[in-house]
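Structure request: Helix-turn-helix domain-containing protein, Streptomyces sindenensis.
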Amino acid sequence: MADRLLTVHQVAERLGTGLRFPRRLIEERRITFVKVGRHVRIPESAVEEYVSAHTVAPIVLRPASAYSYRRAA
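Returned structure:
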């Protein structure tokens, strides 16, 4: 099945940003896009790839042991 093509407005809504952000991604060629005449469309899979590539995992901190004391500076 073909990938659904999204407008810049739809991408902005999906990312929770303003219109300028997806337009900047297109201008800087940081996301895949399709030119349909003078219109620009972004494949749904490109948005998903962008989000997964820029997702940062949380840092898991070790619990402090009962015997570890830190000196105050």
